[in-house]
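Suppose a classmate hands you a notebook page containing two proteins, each written out with its sequence and a corresponding row of structure tokens. How would you begin to make sense of it? This section walks through that situation. The first entry is reproduced here exactly as it would appear on such a page.
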Amino acid sequence: MRYSPLCTDLYELTMLAGYLEERMHETPAVFDLFFRHTPFNGGYAVFAGLDTALDYLEQLAFNDDELAYLVGLGVFRPAFLEYLRTFRFKGRVTAPAEGTVVFGLEPLLTIEGTLAEAQFVETALLNIINFQTLVATKAARINHAAAGSEVVEFGLRRAQGPDGGLSAARAAYVGGVRGTSNVLAGKTFGIPVKGTHAHSWIMAFADELTAFRKYAEVFPDSCILLVDTYDTLRSGIPNAITVAKELRQIGHELAGVRIDSGDLAYLSREARRQLDGAGFPEVKIVASNELDEHVIDSIREEDGRVDIYGVGTRLVTCAGEGGGALGGVYKLVRIDSQPKLKVTSDMAKATLPDRKRLLRAVAADGTFLLDVICLGEETVLPGATVYDPTNPLRHTAIPADARLEELRTVVMEDGRRCGRQPTLDEMADRIKAQLDNLPQGCLRFINPHRYKVSCSKGLNDLRLRLMEEIEHGYLKA
């Protein structure tokens, strides 16, 4: 899918025009994209959206219709509009692999290029990475709550428009939700599509049993019946059992039943009892209705017998405390040969300057210990002292027996991708393995463990020096 270059904020264009006028547009620049706080008040986030972002960067170009629209605004000079005709992204991108577990303040994307190209792509990259990382994180939390039961994304009708529905289905898959009701997402991304029928199917027939029979006639090998239209336990399940017996007599098996309302823990237990008692232990029980990680967790705590969770609204809209938006930002960290940082009275909001690497300290058994942000050319070894980026007075040491792994690689050079892009299945497998290696306290939904993200000595010293220089500059002024 092509992202129009007009999918941006106006100020990206006005700054670009200003840089051209000031002859600054070719100045080398480096920007970092990162977020400050993990979403949902949780212990981690799942990086997603990279492939979509690289598609955008590779295809970035203004067509005649888009240029004509900008002419019609009456804001920009002809020389700038002519400059846009050949404008392309030809820079470098450094990033983790999609499906990597990440934390606040860590550089996710680093964009290097001319000031013009690196600045202009800010809005689109934030739009892509913020949303997909948020959805992938929510999906991972829901998948963790399901504890091995299957989860299917059912959220298209509640998503933020068709584009949001498509991006949400992709990101949910990266987060471990390996099925969707969204047929376009199935075609676009190869995600398995799954679904049942609506209550209107039942209500369109004279009675529930007739509706079940007719649906089974059309889909005898993939029949999942919605059993809560009238009374789940006194009507829906008994009628589903009748149809299951009829299917078995002609060589087919009922695939499942879906419960979409009521006390899902109780109803699923009773449905399981009835189905097992009738000789259908293999029939799957699907639950839906405003599910999220907390509801699923409570269903399991109450011994619910759900095999498949259909999760819609609260996944694709990322509902819940601490959700709604990731809050990722895009900051200049180097221009020409000068490291740059944004300073503020709140140390937690001061940025980290210059080109950086992101390292992960890993124990011998594979457990993640802490992450370290360091300068691009800095040598960091196990045993080194590292500093809290929000409070430099707090420090710790990298365990001496840890190994340090690079979390990011160059994924785009000269505006073209580097190497093979992993499949969605590989991304989903990666986050599953990563969450297995995360300290288990980070997976808690309430008061999760705070995973340490630290600055190296070199980065901490540079940051403090630049802050001091800026402060002295203000005093002199």
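The notebook's second entry, a different protein, reads as follows.
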Amino acid sequence: MARMSVRRASSRALTVPEQTAVLTQFQSERFVDCAPAQVYVTLHEEDTYLCSPRTMYRVLAAYHQVRERRAQRTHPPYAVPRLVATQPNAVWTWDITERKGPHKGDHDKLYVVLDLYSRYVVGWMLASRESVALAQRLIKTACHRHGIARDQLTGHSDRGSVQTAKDWHALYEDLGSVRSLSRPRVSNDNPHSEALFKTTKYAPTYPGRFASFADAERWCCTFFQSYNHAHRHSGIAYCTPSAVFQGEAATQLAQRNATMRTAYQQHPERFVHGAPKPTTLPTAVYINRAEAHTVVIAP
């Protein structure tokens, strides 16, 4: 039977009284806010040597004092938003971004509401400022235009000053919708809206700065028309958002799959991986997909 080896303490290790002396210095009023390196050199100037800075860190770690030694403000825990959309008009996400004007410091605000399942832009607005009233009007108009019924929709957004205003609670109650918010300082809790803003800024015609408010509005009108009706989105099997939103994607995919079957029948040797698999739409689109045991917010 193998013997268990007992590690002996190093002859260089500090004794318990020496460790206590180190802790006493760090817990004193003058050193409570100082790093070990600062304490180390200050004691040198006073003709005192306790140990090396690295040993100071080891002693503090052994007594669980490496963390901030002052009382710190704590933040309440926030639940992870978990959303799933299995059809259009089940979950909308929205956000606000800036568009640069002709001069430095000139910025217009672009509000965009996106249908999560289809990636269809159900509403957008360009304004000179961020406003709770303007955002509420945009949401109300989009709900009216697309016939959103009570208890049908979940609205998700970041925690900006507009999105967290108290007036939103009354609006969502009036619409009969569920409100969902990202966690503070978490950049990927609203990824689909963020991806859309990136798409706008990488568009070939995007100028960087707009000559005027009217110029920016014209560009946005042209872009969102093209995005909804011509852009082929990889997340929805390269269908257009409008086709998925209006229930026409199945026809497009059926035609594509028929074309691929014909091509395979004519030249099967050119398909080295066998017969092409039919292209289908995703069955669901998620924000922070939950594990099997986790309850999600569903329409």
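A careful reader of the second entry would note: The chain has two domains: 16-62, 79-299.
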